[in-house]
Amino acid sequence: MVRNTALMLTVLFVMFPLSGCLSNGDNGDMDGENADLLDALVLLEGQIENKNRQIESLEGIQRDYERDVALMAEMYRTNLSDRVLTGLNLSGVDLTHAILRGVNFSHTNLNEADLTGADLRFANLNHTDLRGAVLTGVKTEGLVDCETSLLSSGTFCRYGVLVSTGVDLSGIDLSGLDLSEMNFHDGTYVGTNFSQGILYGAYFYGANLENAVFDGANLNGAYFTYGGRLTNASLVDANLRYTHFYKADLAGANLTGADLTDADLRQASLDNVIWGHTICPDGTVSDDHGGTCEDNLIEPVQYPDE
To answer: Which domain holds residue 13?
Structure first.
């Protein structure tokens, strides 16, 4: 507004001195033209003020809408499924346990929002800012354009799935995917299908993998240490060479045909494990030791303490 007024005053200061350089007749004509110009400038200033008021009104509506969305979202398990919430500033909003299936969050700021336990399946995360967001227990599957979203270090999005510390991907089919070196630690993957996947060096520290399926998967060098729970998991024919199971729970796991060469099974729970043609950590076969590898573990020198 100040800039527009200054522009009009500049025009007037230029025009009015010129009138003194003209003859009386010409000066009269110029006075009339100056009056018309002043009227036009006053009209223009009024139009600009009106537009500014309209812009302020729209900005107020935007702020009110963002506030209303935040208030709705902060209600326990609010159902916002399939809503269009694009381009909003929802930073720091409490979205715990909210149902956000199919919501369009394109270009929305969710920086430091609390999404604990929220259902984000099939949401559109095109250029969504999720940096610093709390994602513990978040359900993610079939996400749209999540590869373009802004994520904190250690959080990844591949194949429409958001993987971060503590997310819940239970029951999802991730078979055959290359998820090497991804961070799954402290997450929940009950019954998740990782069969035939490439999970070289993936991190499953403290993850709940009960009944998960890793049949034929490449888990070479993966980490299941410190409370990784693989109870009743299926690892048939899996490549478990150099895999870290230090203090992991493998009770009831099926290791038929698995290759455990140089795997670290120190202090792991091996109750009721199913052995069969399993290559033990020391390179021998379970069938040659009464159908078990429990007495053929090794102390891996390359991994002194996890």
So the answer is: 2-73
pLDDT band at residue 128 using 50, 70 and 90 as cut-offs: very high
Question: What is the C-alpha separation between 305 and 303, in angstroms, rounded?
Answer: 6
**33 is a domain residue:** yes
- Does a structural domain hold residue 296? no
In a domain, 66, yes or no: yes
Sequence-ordered strand ranges (E) for the chain: 156-158, 161-163
Give every CB contact of residue 144 below 8 A, 6+ residues apart in sequence: 122, 123, 124, 125, 126, 160
Q: Which of 180, 248, 242, 246 is nearest to 209 (CA)?
A: 248
* pLDDT confidence band for 18 (50 / 70 / 90): very low
Which residue did the predictor score with more confidence, 171 or 43? 171
141-193 pLDDT tens trace: 899 999 999 998 888 888 888 888 899 999 999 999 999 989 898 999 999 99
pTM summary value = 0.72
Per the domain annotation, does 38 fall within a domain? yes
Total domains, the chain: 1
Residue-by-residue DSSP string for 185-221: TT-B-TT-B-TT-B-TT-B-TT-B-TT-B-TT-B-TT
What is the token pair recorded at 281?
């950590």
| Cβ count within 10 A of residue 265 | 25
